[in-house]
Specification:
The protein is an alpha/beta fold and 361 residues long. The chain has 13 helices and twelve strands. Strands 3-2-1-4-5-6-10 form a seven-stranded parallel β-sheet, sandwiched between helices. The chain is globular, with a radius of gyration of 20 Å. It starts with a strand and ends with a helix.
Length: 361
């Protein structure tokens, strides 16, 4: 069995679904179910004996210790985190508690559990910290992509909290010998993404006839990684990664935010044209891109991220299977095919957040 933290969130849920599709090894999912944790993401596993869900906080050490002793996992894959930069600007304290204190609690519980394992199980145990490329800071347009040796230069409360967690993970390896792995991913996209992040927000707003907000000039560049490719990378790292090592996971797709929004609009134009005209089902013939609106840039907005994932390919044989075009088409299709899921995640808390940040009623 493996223990996954934050498995009801976007990447965690995709990872659990992927894991149980390719292996029969059971999964214990510990998730607090905050606003972005949605158990409906894993509804297809209802009644599956390989899947165990526990609602709880990673900061609750007695709970974590009880779970470790009861289920005896051979690995911990740590996704649980507050992850939205904009939210970290408005409320950094929650990010420090979950991302720093929570990781510390997990490390201490894992260290106590690992230290008492029989020799063979102790040698095989792994603690996998799922981190982000944002810990590296911002790149100039001409700079080489981030490698694993790039210095940490976080620029937001979110990335600073993840950087702190990464340092704790490294220290627990160097100080205590805990066999850890760390991965740094670029921007993920795909199914079950909570609609506060760029791609799902654009899809949802476009279909609702709302403005499509873009920060500043929209030329902030990110590398985009399809979530299914990220899940496969984590499986590779967990299976064959060297303890104490870090691995960058990127999609090889550097694109500006404005380009992303325009590509989403073009797909929506093709898949579900804007309604209008005199009869039902008739399009108004105009692109969803007409709804784009530029808004004030956020403080400390990093200009460019880019990932060099050659170490992961060279050492473990991983490469992304999806191109950006294929992954984005799958993503847009998924949201169009799951309107009920979209409607249900748009809770009162979600609407309150949009009003706070974008001034939307």
């Amino acid at each position: 069995m493996i223990l996954v933290t934050g498995g009801a969130g976007f990447i965690g849920a995709n990872f659990i679904l992927d894991w149980l599709q390719v292996t029969d090894e059971p999964v214990l999912n510990l998730d607090k179910l905050t606003y972005a944790g949605n158990p409906e993401n894993l509804a297809s596993l209802a009644g599956d004996a390989r899947y165990v869900f526990v609602q709880g906080d990673i900061c609750d050490r007695p709970l974590v210790e009880r779970l470790l002793q009861r289920y005896r996992p051979r690995a911990i894959v740590h996704f649980a985190a507050e992850s939205h930069v904009d939210r970290s600007l408005h409320g950094p304290e929650a990010f420090l508690r979950t991302n720093v204190d929570g990781t510390f609690t997990l490390l201490e519980a894992a260290r106590a559990y690992w230290s008492e394992l029989p020799a063979a199980e102790k040698a095989a145990f792994r603690f996998h910290q799922v981190s982000t490329d944002e810990v590296y800071g911002s790149l100039s347009p001409e700079a080489a992509p981030f490698t694993e040796a790039h210095p940490y230069r976080p620029n937001s409360p979110y990335s600073a909290s993840k950087a702190a967690a990464d340092h704790l993970v490294r220290a627990w390896h160097r100080s205590y010998g805990l066999p850890v792995l760390t991965s740094h991913c670029s921007n993920n996209y795909g199914p079950y993404h909570f609609p506060e992040k760029l791609i799902p927000l654009v899809i949802v707003n476009a279909l609702a006839g709302k403005p499509l907000p873009i920060y500043g000039d929209g030329q902030q560049v990110r590398d985009w990684l399809y979530v299914g490719d990220h899940c496969a990378a984590i499986r590779h790292i967990l299976a064959a990664g060297r303890p104490g090592e870090s691995y960058n996971v990127g999609g090889g797709n550097e694109l500006a935010n404005l380009d992303i929004v325009q590509k989403v609009c073009a797909l929506l134009d093709a898949f579900r044209p804007r309604p209008g005209g005199e009869s039902d089902g008739e399009s108004d013939g105009k692109s969803y891109a007409r709804q784009i609106r530029f808004v004030a840039d956020r403080p400390g907005h990093d200009r460019r991220y880019a990932i060099d994932a050659s170490k992961l390919e060279r050492e473990l044989g991983w490469r992304p299977a999806e191109s950006f075009a294929s992954g984005l088409a799958k993503t847009v299709r998924w949201y169009l095919d799951h309107p009920d899921w979209v409607a249900r995640v748009q809770s009162g808390a979600y609407r309150d957040w949009l009003q706070t940040h974008y001034g939307e009623p």
